[in-house]
Amino acid sequence: MAYLRAAAVLTAFSCICIVVYGAPSTAANPYTPLWLYNGSWRVMRSNLPAGSKPDDLHNDCALVGKYFACQQTINGETGALLVFVPANEPGHYYTQNIRLDGIASGRGNLLIEGNRWTYTSSWNQGGGTSTYYKTVNIFTGKDRIHFEQYESKNNRDWKMTSSGDEARVSSGKRR
């Protein structure tokens, strides 16, 4: 059960936390908005029972060559390495989650449009069946995010599966 909760939290966080309020990615330095992801966050998911404790997320980020990566720690346990690579268009990134056992989730996309950041990905289940995922982050300042997560079987009709809010606790150091 703890693994499932950690996996759900990791999935949410890998799509939630990039923290810049309307900061555009520039062709000169597309990594600038991603640096604000660095640091610690308090996350309260709206679908938790009343009185539940918020989750603590810490992102330890670094730029390595052309890769921007953040190790995510959730409630004191290492979650995954989240990797970002700028795509060909400003504000568009390819993303990848890599777990401690070396398994990667498959390429996703991030599109930054002002204070709205949208992550999309899919999971091919075989036999022509896929599940599509979308997380929308709405920034209400550079230290606060409202997130909504969705799933779809056809990439058109979306069902909300989770939502919540994040607040920055502290900024991290650049490395």
Please summarize what this structure is.
With 175 residues, the protein is mainly beta. It is built from 2 helices and 10 strands; from the N terminus they run ααββββββββββ. The chain has a 10-stranded antiparallel beta barrel.
Chart the SSEs and their pairings:
Blueprint: H1 2-16, H2 32-35, E1 39-45, E2 55-64, E3 67-74, E4 77-86, E5 92-99, E6 108-113, E7 116-126, E8 129-139, E9 144-152, E10 159-171
* Continuous helix count: 2
Cα distance, first to last residue? 34 Å
* Biggest sheet architecture: 10 strands, antiparallel, barrel
Round the mean pLDDT to the nearest integer and report it. Answer: 84
Describe the structure.
- The structure is a single chain.
- This protein is mainly beta and 175 residues long.
- The protein has one domain (2-171): Lipocalin.
- Helices cover 11% and strands 53% of the residues.
- It has helices at 2-16, 32-35, and strands at residues 39-45, 55-64, 67-74, 77-86, 92-99, 108-113, 116-126, 129-139, 144-152, 159-171.
- Strands 1-2-3-4-5-6-7-8-9-10 form a ten-stranded antiparallel barrel.
- The longest helix is centred in the N-terminal third of the chain and has 15 residues, at 2-16.
- It is globular and about 45 Å long.
